Amino acid sequence: MRTYLIGCDLNRARGVPDYPDLIAAIMRIAGGNYWHRLDATWILKSDRRALDICNELVSLIDDDDDLLVIEVTREAAWAESSRHVRMQPPAYVNRETSQSDWSEADT
Q1: What percentage of the chain has pLDDT greater than the value 70?
Q2: pTM as predicted
């Protein structure tokens, strides 16, 4: 399986429902193997190609939205607020995981 980062620039006005079809499609593609802590960013595992994932999801966003699907193959860094910057990738990027390892409290 490959690891992908999906990033979206979603521009719906406040009060308009979020993107339930897009979120459901991402979770379906991931088969439960996903991480979602940032507003419009997911990390997931899939056997599919980035282009195929993007082609499926693009019909679920609005005309003024943007979508990025990129395979994660290298080192990553992230921060939670300004507390701790971490340089090594999360454990799930480098190993097979069960659904509970990925999605626990991350949706």
Answers
A1: 68
A2: 0.70
Q: Which CA distances in Å does 48 have to 2, 30, 53, 62, 95?
A: 8, 10, 7, 23, 18
**Cβ atoms < 10 Å from Cβ of 93:** 18
What domain range is 76 assigned to?
A: 2-103
Six-digit token string for 60? 């679920």
Domain count within the chain: 1
For the chain, what is the total number of helices (H) and then of strands (E)? 3, 6
50 Cα distance to chain centroid: 12
Q: 6-15, 73-82, 91-100: which has the minimum mean pLDDT?
A: 91-100
Report the C-alpha gap between 94 and 107 in whole angstroms: 21
Helix (H) or strand (E) holding 23: helix 20-30
CATH code of 94's domain? 3.30.70.240
Q: Which long-range contacts (CB under 8 A, 24 or more apart) does 51-57 make?
A: 53/4, 53/6, 53/29, 56/25, 56/29, 57/6, 57/22, 57/25, 57/26, 57/29
